């Protein structure tokens, strides 16, 4: 089989030995990538299971969600799933108004608070909080759209429930930080070296206007990073 395959590649398709080796390496890398992806997805599911607190989640769900568990008895004006023959039917309030969800502070909300929102499970809650910690806090609600897998439509529909609160809680002290700590999700690779080299030669940067004067600066990236910058002197 191997000999036939080599013959096909070498003589029928006119591949050189180097091209055949490259093709084998490429196929190997693709297999490794697929295995790593499967492993990552499995790990995310396992972590989500460990992070899930069913008692706390159920308490929040009952208190906030307009959908209540089927085991509950309903009054005349209550919404819920009810049995109708062999099918279950969603019954709305007679007034046509659903109970409102509680607003949350996106910079302080814990896992339970996130899970209480429709469409957010334990996995997404953990992902949001992890990204929040990497940033140093959110300064606007639209930053939630940057969380991997979170639908921008969900952010738009739930914007009224999402409050920024005090905003950014950890800043990048541009005049104090050293190279190993000069990092941020918004900061492109190499930009820290540009600023450190300028700082070493010219000293303290007074404000953002002084920062803009640096040559080789990726101004678009730094404008995005601006809410996280501190120009306090060392």
UniProtKB/TrEMBL annotation:
Q: Does the keyword Transmembrane apply?
A: yes
UniProt keywords (A-Z) are: Membrane, Transmembrane, Transmembrane helix
The regions listed as transmembrane in this protein's record are: 20-40
The protein depicted here goes by the name Helix-hairpin-helix domain-containing protein
Q: Which organism is it from?
A: Aquirufa novilacunae
